[in-house]
TrEMBL record:
SUPFAM superfamilies assigned to the protein according to its UniProt record, in alphabetical order: HLH, helix-loop-helix DNA-binding domain (SSF47459)
GO molecular function: DNA-binding transcription factor activity, RNA polymerase II-specific; protein dimerization activity; RNA polymerase II cis-regulatory region sequence-specific DNA binding
Pfam families documented for this protein: HLH (PF00010)
Leader sequence segment: none
Keywords annotated in UniProt: Coiled coil, Nucleus, Transcription, Transcription regulation
Name assigned to this protein: (spotted green pufferfish) hypothetical protein
Biological process according to GO: positive regulation of transcription by RNA polymerase II
Cellular compartment(s): Nucleus
Keyword Plastid: no
Entry GO CC: nucleus
BHLH domain sequence ranges: 1-48
InterPro entries, A to Z: bHLH_dom (IPR011598), HLH_DNA-bd_sf (IPR036638), USF (IPR051732)
Length: 77
């Protein structure tokens, strides 16, 4: 039971290493450490969250500009 639990955890860590950029197990002979993979995964998630927040702010700004543009068009008409 314990071996299956460890195998599942190890398989998920390997899966993470394939998803996270610059985090390949084959980068060295022994592969990246589990802790290193988890650390890079946390860094990547933080980066994605920051990018998502910036994109949301940009979207709000675009929507504001579109509304201003529409108001200006209505004033011209």
């Amino acid at each position: 039971v314990e071996r299956r639990r460890r195998d599942k955890i190890n398989n998920w860590i390997v899966t993470l290493s394939k998803i996270i950029p610059d985090c390949n197990l084959d980068s060295t002979k022994t592969g990246a450490s589990k802790g290193g993979i988890l650390s890079k995964a946390c860094d990547y998630i933080r980066e994605l969250r920051q990018n998502n927040q910036r994109l949301q702010e940009s979207l709000k700004e675009v929507e504001r500009i579109q509304m201003d543009n529409e108001l200006c068009r209505q004033q011209v008409d």
